[in-house]
Amino acid sequence: MVLMIxxxxxxxxxxxxxxxxxxxxxxxxxxxxxxFFANNNEEFVICSLKDYGMTLSxxxxxxxxxxxxxxxxVKITCSAKNSGEE
Length: 86
Fold this sequence. Notes:
This protein has one helix and six strands, in the order ββββββα. By secondary structure, the chain is mainly beta. The protein has one domain. The strands form two sheets. The protein has a three-stranded antiparallel beta sheet with strand order 1-6-5.
């Protein structure tokens, strides 16, 4: 499954700051997308995946992230145990 989060729906303001995003991850504990900006060592909550009806488990799911001026793409992948491939 692929989720596209438009930059306008994120907590990134002003929107040009997405170009300064250096690291991005999913925090499974509270289902948030978090990141770090260049020259800033503080973790920043980009958005809550619960706003999109998603609560993920690191046991069942993996993910790939990419971002750019249009927004953030989250590709959710299933683990081998849940996909029937062992």
